[in-house]
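Protein 1 of 2
SEQ + STRUCT:
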Amino acid sequence: MALARVAAGVLLAAIGCVLSVAADNPSTTSPQPFVWQKAHATFYGGADASDTMGGACGYGNLFSEGPGVTVTVTATNFCPPNDALPNDNGGSCNPLRPHFDMAQPAWEKIGVYRGGIIPVMYQRVPCVKRGGVRFRINGQVTDL
């Protein structure tokens, strides 16, 4: 059991290193910071955000903090393009159509539930990194 956790930790660390190197790759095209970009927003999960607790960052129950008037998104990863699909047929990650897949309560601050997808404007801003890398493994031992 301990060996499985160590192996999972090493695997996660290796994945983190690969993602870090990929993020530092100058050939990777990404929007310039501080420039407003066009995108689309969609949502997932239920109205109570029960399916989205913690998000990819492990912040915990963000929904219990109450609603706000501003939606701030912390992008933890980028969706890879799928050149086999046209931009208007499921290729939401293809160039010229970046999107944010948000928790439903956050999305409903800027859109109507029945709409399903809305145009948005966003800009990348610098993020000050604090501390080291953190890993959280949830679930049963059989999940590893």
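Protein 2 of 2
SEQ + STRUCT:
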Amino acid sequence: MARIVWRNITSVVLPVSMSMVWRTRCLTLIIMTNGSEWGKRTWEVSQSINEIHSATVDIVNFNDIELENVYLDWVGNCDGLRLKAGSQQQLDVSERIARLVASDLVFRKDNRTTLSRKDWFKNTLRKAAHAWKRIIELPLSEQEAFMLRFFVDEPAFTDLHWGMFIPTIKGQSTEQQQQKWLPLTYKMQIIGCYAETELGHGSNWPGGLGKASIHGVVYARLLVDGKDHGDNGFIVQHQSFDDHSPLPGITVAGIGMKFGNGAYSTMDNGVLRFDHVSIPRDQMLMWVSQVTREGKYVQSDVPRQLLYGTMVYVRQTIVANTSCALSRAVCIITRYSAVRRQFGSQDDIASNFSTLPEAHACTAGLKSLTTSTTADAIEECQKLCSGNGYLCSSVLPELFAVYVPACTYEGDNVVLLLQIERFLMKTVSQLGSGKQPVGTTAYMGRVEHLLQCCSDVQQAADCKMPSQEESFAELSSDLVETAVAHCQLIVVSKFIEKLKQDIPGKGVKEQLKFLWNIYALFLLHKHQGEFLATRAITPKQASLSSDQLRVLYAQARRNAIALVDALNYTDHYLGSILGHYDGNAYPNLYAKAWEEPLNDTVVPDSYREYIWPILKQQLRTSRL
């Protein structure tokens, strides 16, 4: 900011940015000079957000002072919240490293959506190598290095090296093994990954394995003299130090593009196969168990469950990191919501909505309900396919990416639900006049009873507040849920009406009744709290409905394949290697992996440029 000089000023009118105001009703003026805080003034803001455009602040004894910076800051509970995230020292490190990354052109993000997968992967290698170079140059502590990789914000092979490969060696190897391997890993003279088929996860494609890593902690069954001793960890070199080609007997390849334009496609998840490969005995991780030189298996007193300690540690890290991901998204949407404008004032919406016919309300509501439900269901299907659902070849990512815009185009779903709620409120307000609702709102003739059960309101007409707009804004989150419930009731009711008709096809009607029962009971179970709160059902009925739903789920599992086969979709139409009619998902996955362009060459094009210098400690560092 340019330096300014104030002379003989007793007050100043400062413009107030909307992005500052919506955070809090308490503002602070901070005046900096000569690198330190000269003074500050805090005052309460009483105006509403739309009325604040400037603020007048009295200033005393600032005559002829050259000011470096004058700015508004927001105060309140923020400091307490920031300190909960870590110590002040940790916050200072975080902010400093974040600025370091943001100012480095190598770590730029603006070109990510224009890169091909090959270029994106090469760019990721470049960033990872540059990050390591900066860590050496500065130099950075272990905590600072972790923060730098975090703020680079691009999944890379180094994540698995530092986050899984090293912790596994530290946690499962003997002291002698640690002395051999850890210095190499910390200097990145070897690059490792974690090659385990995780328990209950079903992922066979380790990250960092496809093209970048040299070594891996491989979990395999240990057979000694014909006896199976279960899974054990081994440090296995699978790529050559000389030219990065696979070692004899080893097949390794990347598995292809994943969900999203970039997402985890910057991580070279890979497939690994061994054919009569030998390794030295001392490359077995021997803290939990070992094989002696004489070929005898020896189990230590350490519980075997600790073999999976790295997996547990990483899952704990994932749980901890959910707050980072969620808070990031919440930050974006909160800031956007503060400046978002749609359809002008609320009064205009109300006046325009007064003539909305029931048909429009019904279609708008169902559009919102069905698109949101479908998008969520597609995503759930993707998650249920575990890691394979993240592959583009599963077509689930494409389905999700293609369908999600339906939640926005032709009317934003939340805005539509608020419009439906206005329609419902208008219907309720007419009950006092004796006008009975019909059609999809016929059930609202009983709403007066519900109001008496849940509030002090004695008549439906009493819902009117002195300011409808204020009450609508205050209750908008509850009203959205009400609109969703109204739309769900429409679906259930129309389903029943259809089942009362003649339906051709042997057994078709029975199966539709079965599916309707599941859907209706699922909604009842999902919103059980609301049903109990309004005394629409008793606790006993809630328990019975949950029991019946479990019975129906068990029946559905037996008929699931037949039900989806009845859709008669061809393999071509589905377009998914996971959903072929023949059921050969895993052979299809393996065959598809070899079509990945990165597998056109055994050694990645960028190996010599980025990986080789790291391994040989030949990164050029700046002389400071």
